[in-house]
Amino acid sequence: MVYTFSWGNETKLGHQTEQTDLELFPLLGALDNIPVVQSAAGYCYLLALACQPSGMSVYFVGCGLGGKLGHGTRTEEEVSSTPCCIRGIPPGRDIIEQFQTLNIQLVVVAAGAWHAAIVGKDGRVCTWGWGRYGCLGHGNEDCESAPKVVKALSNVKVVYVATWDYTTFVVSN
Q1: Parent domain of 161
Q2: What stretches of residues are RCC repeats (predicted)?
């Protein structure tokens, strides 16, 4: 079970309100009976790496400004007040099509202020969100509203990723 507390601006706590919660509160909704193995918090959003029968999935809640929720939209209006699974273009599916298409088995998720990243079991890294200062690693400053493989790391087996404001750090084996 994932619990959240503190400042609830932009519904980032997943409680369907914007109130401040001073006590622990369970994150309800899509994650109710799904084991979460890791969570990561960025500015006004939360990502959770969860076990599914078909493999690991990434769930999100909060503000999607810049595409940081990874669901294909970049606008601030795209706010999720309950946990949702990152999905591909066809709406309503509880799978991460980008990761399945790329055959990536998720092992680590990171949430920076404005962008996010994952590491796959094979060492590949995907990033999405605001690309300011090149923080997504794609050789430009473009925003990516859905996860995209970082080609610059194709010859590196990454085991861990961390993100911050406009930076991404990876650790190789």
Answers
A1: 3-172
A2: 56-122, 123-173
Cα dihedral value 90, 93, 99, 104, nearest 10: -150
Instruction: Look up residue 21 and give its two tokens.
Output: 């919660």
The tally of domains found in the chain comes to 1
What 3-state class would DSSP assign to 78? coil
Cα(93)–Cα(159) distance, rounded to whole angstroms?
Answer: 28
Token pair in block for residue 81: 């007040």
Q: How many CB atoms lie within 10 A of CB 34?
A: 18
Note the pLDDT tens digit of each residue in 102-139: 889 999 999 999 999 999 999 999 999 999 999 999 99
**The domain that contains 85 carries what CATH number?**
2.130.10.30
Rounded to two decimals, the pTM is 0.81
Q: State how far the Cα of 125 lies from the Cα of 137, in Å rounded to an integer.
A: 10
- Helix, strand, coil shares of the chain as percentages rounded to 5? 10, 45, 45
For residue 91, pLDDT over 50 is answered with no
